[in-house]
């Protein structure tokens, strides 16, 4: 499941005379003059906060957002520790604690309005937007826990709160940071926007050297804090970037503890990233490779479709990625088609070559080979008074019948001379005459041979004569019959 896209709203917007925005309605019965805006404050987002001196209320507009979170400083232990959600009274988790005050979502049916007492300090708000929310002029916040950030090296997740002088306990945004003290550890973040900033946490007095490489251009910066702190700027672009896709690689180059007598590398903590989007809505948010949880592989993540029932297709970047996938599929199909066509063409050529070789041959319906002549011409095998056909004048054994020639198309054809034609006719007549003698002999009786054997030989000879007449008539035409 993809992550929701969240935008951050600084407390500065409370200073406007009209503080209504598209995702919430605010009500200050005593007027905005009861809001005390403070700037130049370290350890707060954008170094500012706003303190309320009178009660006020807020009604989220769920048609353009899906969750709503407020960050700030809870009242001191001596002040009222409650706030109102609808008609229900809720308690802050800890007095004098800086961090997330509450977080509600559109799924919570009871979260329709909020009422706050005085002495609450507002630092910033974070809302998750839908596909229809206009992002023009907004700032997107990406927490360090996001899968859109690819961590490289020995980074570890730290969930420990800090204790700062004058603030009590302080939690980082999202209640976690990614920490490292190893030189060369880095993270990579891809975005589509016109500016980008990296913020973090300093846990002890220390100094760092980091390199922020943006679109291949390195930018080295030194960071030095004499005291621990939150919302510390690690890197920010000095000029607007051209709209489009960009890549930031943030690398730890050096770290040192700035405490007398202390030895070792200092720990740096990355908390969140801010960037100004160059896309109008999250439907137009490009897809980038993102870190797969628990492994070094990457998957693809995009905006969460939290449009409250508006399931429109992805924007221009999604269309371009879809086009790339479609182009790859079409290319693969075309390649398969070319391979199949090549195999078919090769087989067709082989078939033509085989037919060409076979075209030089003709059927041989009456071709008598050397090893077959004896079995085909020696019709009678028993010893009786009739002459053996093998020695008849004009027997097939006595003349060649395999005369070959070539026609106008280069094909071999079988021809026969007039003399061979006459010899075959005489051989046929001699067989018929022998058959007639055997029939006469059968009628008169043959003391040296049984009548059944004689009948079998006669049937065999008739079959040989019929076959000879039929085959030679088919081969040489009706003139042979």
Tell me what you see in this structure.
With 481 residues, this protein is of the alpha+beta class. It folds into 4 domains: 1-129, Jelly Rolls, CATH 2.60.120; 139-312, Jelly Rolls (Sandwich); 315-358; 370-480, no CATH class. It has 4 helices and 27 strands. The protein has an 18-stranded mixed β-sheet that branches. A 5-stranded antiparallel β-sheet has the order 2-5-10-7-8, with no helix packed on it. Strand 26 and strand 27 form a beta hairpin. Helix 3 (418-444) packs antiparallel against helix 4 (451-476). The protein is rod-shaped, with a radius of gyration of 51 Å. Residues 291-321 have a biased composition (Low complexity). The chain crosses the membrane at residues 324-345. It is found in: Membrane.
Overview features:
21% helix, alpha+beta, single chain, 18-stranded mixed β-sheet, 5-stranded antiparallel β-sheet, 4 domains, Jelly Rolls, 481 residues
């Amino acid at each position: 499941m993809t992550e929701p896209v969240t935008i951050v709203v600084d407390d500065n917007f409370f200073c406007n005379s009209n503080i209504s925005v598209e995702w919430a309605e605010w009500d200050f019965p005593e007027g905005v003059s009861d809001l005390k805006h403070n700037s130049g404050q370290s350890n707060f987002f954008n170094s500012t906060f706003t303190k309320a001196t009178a009660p006020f209320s807020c009604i989220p507009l769920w048609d353009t957002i899906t969750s709503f979170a407020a960050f700030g400083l809870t009242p001191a232990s001596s002040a009222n520790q409650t706030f109102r959600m609808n008609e229900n009274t809720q308690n802050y988790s800890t007095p004098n604690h800086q961090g997330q005050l509450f977080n509600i979502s559109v799924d919570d049916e009871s979260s329709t309005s909020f009422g706050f007492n005085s002495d609450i300090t507002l630092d910033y708000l974070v809302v998750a937007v839908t596909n229809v929310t206009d992002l023009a002029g907004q700032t997107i916040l990406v927490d360090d826990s996001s899968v859109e950030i690819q961590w490289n090296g020995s980074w570890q997740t730290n969930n420990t709160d800090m204790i700062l002088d004058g603030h009590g306990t302080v939690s980082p945004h999202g209640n976690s940071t990614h920490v490292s003290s190893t030189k060369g550890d880095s993270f990579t973040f891809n975005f589509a926007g016109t500016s980008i900033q990296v913020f973090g946490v300093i846990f002890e007095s220390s100094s760092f050297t980091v390199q922020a490489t943006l679109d291949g251009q390195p930018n080295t910066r030194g960071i030095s804090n004499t005291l621990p702190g939150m919302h510390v700027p690690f890197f920010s672009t000095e000029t607007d970037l051209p709209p489009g896709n960009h890549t930031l690689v943030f690398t730890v180059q050096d770290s040192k503890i700035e405490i007398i007598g202390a030895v070792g590398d200092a720990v740096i903590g990355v908390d969140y990233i801010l960037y100004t989007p160059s896309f109008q809505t999250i439907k137009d948010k490009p897809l980038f490779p993102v870190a797969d949880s628990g492994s070094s592989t990457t998957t693809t993540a995009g905006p969460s479709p939290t449009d409250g029932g508006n399931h429109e297709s992805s924007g221009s970047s999604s269309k371009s990625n879809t086009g790339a996938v479609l182009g790859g599929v079409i290319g693969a199909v075309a390649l398969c088609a070319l391979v199949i066509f090549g195999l078919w063409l090769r087989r067709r050529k082989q078939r033509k070559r085989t037919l060409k070789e076979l075209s030089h041959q003709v059927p041989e319906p009456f071709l008598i080979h050397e090893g077959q002549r004896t079995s085909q011409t020696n019709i009678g095998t028993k010893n009786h008074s009739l002459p053996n056909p093998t020695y008849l004048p004009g027997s097939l054994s006595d003349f060649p019948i395999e005369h070959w020639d070539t026609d106008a198309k280069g094909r071999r054809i079988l021809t026969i001379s007039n003399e061979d034609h006459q010899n075959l006719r005489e051989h046929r007549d001699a067989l018929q005459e022998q058959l007639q003698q055997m029939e006469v002999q059968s009628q008169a009786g043959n003391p040296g041979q049984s009548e059944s054997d004689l009948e079998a030989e006669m049937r065999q000879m008739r079959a040989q004569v019929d076959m000879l007449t039929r085959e030679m008539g088919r081969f040489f035409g009706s003139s042979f019959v």
